[in-house]
Structure formats: structure tokens, C-alpha cells
Amino acid sequence: MQVAVIGVGVMGSAIAGRLLDVGAAVAVYDVAPDKCRVLTGRGARLAASPRDATAGAEFAITSLNSADVVERAVFGADGVAAAAARRRMEDCHP
Fold it and tell me: Based on C-alpha coordinates, what's the Rg of the chain?
């Protein structure tokens, strides 16, 4: 299973850590990349953006602290929705 975790503060890092514990392939992204260091040391892939984290993921989990941050992470130019839209197009046109 491939999972993207966007936002790895206290809650997001716990979620990502548990996913790694059960063998999931986890991509992590946070605006503060230093927060990802422990998780990448455990095998998570450091993503360059929410879009990058979501590319190839079956699930995307956000753990973010405000509606503005969620909106940017999901609908921004390099957000989750950009990766999801590309994936839908690939599903329709192999």
C-alpha cells in the first residue's frame, strides 16, 4: 500500500510512523522538511510537494492546522488535486 502523509507534526508523524510499522510505503511532505527527518530515517520517502507525495499513492492523509493550509496543500498549484487530476486522466487514457 502506498500512502501520502501531508503535514507531519505531532499527529501526522504518528500516523506516518504507524503506517511504516505495518509495512506501507509512505511519502511524507511538510513545509518544514526537518520534521520529516525521523520518518525518512525509518524508510519514508521525502516528497518535494503535496503533489509529489500523492503521485502514485493509493491514499492521501492530511494533518494540517488550518483551512488555509489545507486549501493550499490540496488545491494549490503543486497540491494533491493536481496529482489526482493527472491520475484520473491516466486511468481514462492509458
Answer: 13
pLDDT at 90: 55
- The residue among 93, 84, 44 whose CA lies nearest residue 35 is 44
Supply the range of the domain harboring residue 48: 2-92
Count, residues in the chain = 94
| List of residues 6+ apart from 9 with CB closer than 8 A | 30, 35, 63, 65
Query: How confident is the model at residue 89, as a pLDDT?
Result: 46
Report the distance separating Cα 45 and Cα 36, nearest Å: 9
Give the number of domains in the chain. Answer: 1
- Domain of 36, CATH number, reads 3.40.50.720
Type of residue numbered 70: V
Please write the tens of the pLDDT for every residue from 34-84: 999 999 999 999 999 999 999 889 999 999 999 999 999 999 999 999 877
